[in-house]
Amino acid sequence: MSGNFETKLQDLGIKLPEAPVPAANYVPFVQVGDIVYVSGQISASQGGLMKGKLGDNMTTEEGAEAAKVCAINLLAQVKVACGGDLDRLTRVVKLTGFVNSTPDYTEQPQVINGASNFIGEALGDVGKHARAAVSAAALPFGVAVEIEGIFQIA
Are 110 and 55 in contact (CB under 8 A)? Predict the structure, then answer.
């Protein structure tokens, strides 16, 4: 049976994937009390890696779609941290987004809006969060976006 958040995700046409496994020597998340710190999730979907460099071979709109995929992967990790019940999520505290971009590219906030807008639409007030959007000279595997998050759960 799906909870409220998963029903809303279904209404948006989103089915959370299996939580991605780490690509190196780290864990996907760490829980301290009621706070869950989720490791950076890259722009990787069932269709594969979403690679590119903003300001070079990828548009801001394509970057925003990559950021949305990162947000979906973040929620998949949070669901695991919540023991399978995403409705235990009480607050998205902060997202930090890294955008693979050229030195003169300045639309990192619009790219990370792809994640923030999706989180807000899917989670409502629970999804209101603090945020950073920064440029990166390169990201793992050449992906366009990586986002880490801090979440509060019950």
Answer: no
Contacts of 11 (CB under 8 A, 6+ apart): none
Residue 148 Cα to chain centre, angstroms: 7
Instruction: Copy the structure tokens of residue 153.
Output: 């759960």
Residue 44: alpha-carbon gap to chain centroid: 10
DSSP 3-state of 80: helix
Q: Are strands 130-136 and 145-153 parallel, antiparallel or unpaired?
A: unpaired
Q: DSSP class of residue 15?
A: -
Question: How far apart are the C-alpha atoms of 140 and 94, rounded to whole Å?
Answer: 22
Which H or E run includes 119?
A: helix 108-123
Q: 129 φ, ψ to 5°? A: -145, 160
17-31 pLDDT, tens digit per residue, is 999 888 899 999 999
pTM exceeds 0.85, yes or no: yes
For residue 150, give the H/E element and its range. strand 145-153
Instruction: Give CA–CA dist 113/3, Å, rounded.
Output: 25
The amino acid present at 119, given as its one-letter code, is I
pLDDT at 114: 98
User: What is the pLDDT, as a whole number, of residue 1?
Assistant: 41
